[in-house]
């Protein structure tokens, strides 16, 4: 604490800004899943219709990550984040104006395009503001905003729905982005331009051996060169096999609890709050674990891979949901799984800044994010087909059981691919 006071802690204020943006990002994203039971009656959606709406989001989210990653590496994090949150906040509010399935799909597509800039900008900001030994924790903290958003939504949205109607749920939450944007424009600059940053803290931020060299490197990096590297494909695989699982937890869990346990989503939902609180613990805990191992003297790559392995193992028990009808036991299993999912997320993002120079971080995050979102396009197709099939047999829970089996295996597959492609996560020289 004494050392922290001498160094300064403005970098943690920046981390809080990223946390707040991610909270709003996921609050806007989560609303549709909570309103699904009511909207599918109002607009006569089938599970396949809903899966198409989700796919519209994930498809543009995939494309947007690829584009934003490259753009943010060129224009910088301040302007990149400004564009991103402006687009997604407008899209979130416009949901209130549509009345057709196609209209919701179009607005979800625009929302996906805007929200896709959050992680390329956020991870690059962490790489700019934190030394390697603090990056996983910083990513875990800002990524935990996704969990806070998911926790707040089951409380806030039913209240807005009951008092003002579903349209205002979109308008009120969408408007929060513009509040954040005003603060971002006022307080953010990169470290070398930030006048509020103490010299000691700037020196600490640049304490890694390659930090100053990276900051002075203005050469450009092409997608072709990045795609020729095993390290890039390790990150791509890690995202492709695991991001779709998070989309499932985000978009279908409310419907799962409503169907299986008759949870009334028009009221504040304690089970969902508990589940998504677990994700917050996972984000921060997963980031802290690898940072703690590094401080204990572990090589960076071993610390990251150990944290990823622990996370992958902790997802497996979700497959046991099929063997119980006790809602609270199911909540415990899913809470552990989503916590592990977010612990994985905190470390998978951080390995990019471990393996790549700062000038390429957003581009690589964009490539991996696109791969994860592509997986997020195909997985909803599978989910919609499975759930509609088993709904026709009168046993939709059996469909969810199959999906949970896929969820339980995916992270171990991803870890093995990462290990094979980048066993020591060597630093790339571009």
Can you lay out the helices and strands and say which pair or pack?
Layout: H1 2-7, H2 10-42, H3 47-75, H4 77-94, H5 101-115, H6 118-129, H7 132-143, H8 145-164, H9 166-187, H10 199-205, H11 211-216, H12 223-227, H13 230-240, H14 243-261, H15 270-295, H16 300-315, H17 327-355, H18 358-392, H19 396-421
Helix pairs in contact: 2-4, 2-6, 2-7, 2-8, 2-9, 2-14, 3-4, 3-5, 3-6, 3-18, 4-5, 4-6, 4-9, 6-7, 6-18, 7-15, 7-17, 8-9, 8-15, 13-17, 13-18, 13-19, 14-18, 14-19, 15-16, 15-17, 16-17, 16-19, 18-19
How would you explain this protein's 3D organization?
The structure is a single chain. By secondary structure, the chain is mainly alpha-helical. 81% of the residues lie in helices and 0% in strands. The protein has a single domain, classed as MFS general substrate transporter like domains (Growth Hormone, Chain: A, Up-down Bundle), CATH 1.20.1250.20. It has helices at 2-7, 10-42, 47-75, 77-94, 101-115, 118-129, 132-143, 145-164, 166-187, 199-205, 211-216, 223-227, 230-240, 243-261, 270-295, 300-315, 327-355, 358-392, 396-421. The mean pLDDT is 85.
């Amino acid at each position: 604490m004494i050392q922290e006071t001498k160094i300064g802690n403005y970098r943690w204020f920046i981390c809080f800004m990223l946390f707040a943006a991610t909270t709003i990002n996921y609050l806007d994203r989560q609303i549709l899943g909570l309103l699904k039971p009511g909207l599918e009656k109002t607009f006569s959606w089938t599970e396949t219709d809903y899966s198409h709406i989700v796919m519209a989001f994930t498809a543009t989210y995939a494309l947007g990550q690829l584009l934003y990653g490259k753009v943010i590496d060129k224009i910088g994090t301040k302007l990149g984040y400004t564009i991103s949150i402006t687009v997604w906040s407008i899209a979130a509010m416009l949901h209130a104006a549509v009345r057709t399935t196609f209209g919701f799909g179009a607005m979800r597509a625009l929302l996906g395009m805007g929200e896709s800039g959050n992680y390329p900008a956020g991870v690059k900001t962490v790489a700019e503001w934190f030394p390697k030994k603090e990056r996983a924790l910083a990513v875990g903290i800002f990524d935990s905003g996704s969990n806070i958003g998911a926790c707040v939504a089951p409380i806030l949205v039913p209240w807005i729905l009951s008092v003002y109607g579903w349209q205002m749920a979109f308008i009120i939450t969408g408007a929060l982005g513009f509040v954040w944007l005003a603060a971002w424009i006022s307080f953010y600059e990169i470290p070398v331009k930030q006048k509020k940053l103490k010299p000691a803290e700037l020196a600490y931020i640049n304490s890694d051996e390659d930090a100053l060299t990276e900051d002075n490197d203005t050469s450009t990096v092409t997608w072709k060169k990045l795609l020729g590297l095993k390290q890039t494909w390790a990150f791509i695989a890690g995202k492709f096999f695991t991001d779709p699982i998070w989309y499932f937890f985000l978009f279908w869990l409310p419907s799962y609890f409503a169907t299986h346990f008759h949870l009334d989503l028009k009221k504040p939902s304690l089970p969902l709050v508990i589940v998504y609180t677990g994700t917050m613990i996972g984000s921060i805990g997963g980031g802290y674990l690898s940072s703690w191992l590094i401080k204990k003297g572990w090589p960076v790559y071993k610390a990251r891979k150990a944290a990823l392995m622990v996370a992958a193992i902790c997802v497996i028990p979700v497959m046991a949901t099929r063997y119980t009808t006790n809602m609270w036991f199911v909540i415990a299993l899913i809470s552990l799984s989503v916590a592990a999912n977010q612990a994985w997320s905190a470390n998978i993002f951080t390995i990019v800044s471990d393996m790549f120079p700062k000038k390429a971080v957003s581009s690589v995050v964009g490539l991996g994010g696109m791969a994860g979102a592509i997986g997020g396009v195909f997985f909803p197709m599978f989910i919609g087909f499975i759930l509609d099939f088993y709904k026709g047999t009168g046993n939709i829970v059996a469909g969810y059981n199959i999906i949970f089996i896929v969820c339980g295996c995916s992270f171990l597959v991803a870890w093995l691919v990462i290990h094979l492609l980048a066993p020591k996560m060597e630093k790339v020289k571009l």
